[in-house]
Amino acid sequence: MDHFDQIMPLNSSATEVAGFITALHLNQTNTIKDMLCEIQNALEQQIRSSGHNLFVDRFAEYNVIFEQLQECGWDNVHFISPDFHELHLKAVDESSREHILKVWIPDKFPNEGPKFECDLPQEFQYRWLPDDSLHNMFFVFQETLNMFAEFWNNMDELDKNTWILEPETTSRKDCKRRIALAPGVSLLLVVNPVMPTAIPTCHYLGPERIVEPVRAKFNKNIHK
């Protein structure tokens, strides 16, 4: 696989991945699934050759992760760290925007729930229950994206059709935009991600003598 290092980064020697399989061998795989199967096979060989409980425990841990990634779908796996303790799952919303759910796997997984992080305008909340799975969490994440589809559509329109001063680099969690209106005058918009079509909070920035007529015109036309 030409770009497998995006899924499984190499260590500093660039000869081993996760300490037991060579980069050369992984380069011969064609898909993410093939790569993970190769790693699983290598673990089985280590167990047979060493017989140490350490490898048995590690194999059991990795096997649980493999099975849960299988449920999520390999096409949705964006990144796996060498120690398998950090995973990135990729979801695509109805407007073809990509969103990454970063997951950190604890040592006692799946009995202990993972930590997670994502780029949403509101905190993503998920309560890990007994016998829970990454697939369930990923499904809830995908459903949550639908809640913000209209918000992101509106923000994309703002970014496309106005001169955005701040933030210089936007992210999917940003609810604010500072827009240039005239020399020395700008408008800070704060959009409610849950009610994106509601009138946003507006703060005019600049000399009052210039801002006042702009504000008055906006207030006059706001309900038209």
Automatic annotation (TrEMBL):
Superkingdom in the source lineage: Eukaryota
Database matches in InterPro entries: Fancl (IPR026848), FANCL_d2 (IPR043898), FANCL_d3 (IPR044037), FANCL_d3_sf (IPR043003), UBQ-conjugating_enzyme/RWD (IPR016135)
Cross-referenced Gene3D superfamilies: RWD domain-like, Ubiquitin Conjugating Enzyme
GO molecular function annotations of the record: ubiquitin protein ligase activity
GO cellular-component term (any): Fanconi anaemia nuclear complex
One matching Pfam family: FANCL_d2
Stretches assigned to the FANCL UBC-like domain: 62-148, 150-223
A Gene Ontology BP annotation from the UniProt entry: interstrand cross-link repair
PANTHER family: E3 UBIQUITIN-PROTEIN LIGASE FANCL, UBIQUITIN LIGASE PROTEIN PHF9 FANCONI ANEMIA GROUP L PROTEIN
Protein name: E3 ubiquitin-protein ligase FANCL
Organism: Trichonephila clavata (Joro spider)
Protein encoded by which gene: NCL1_40144
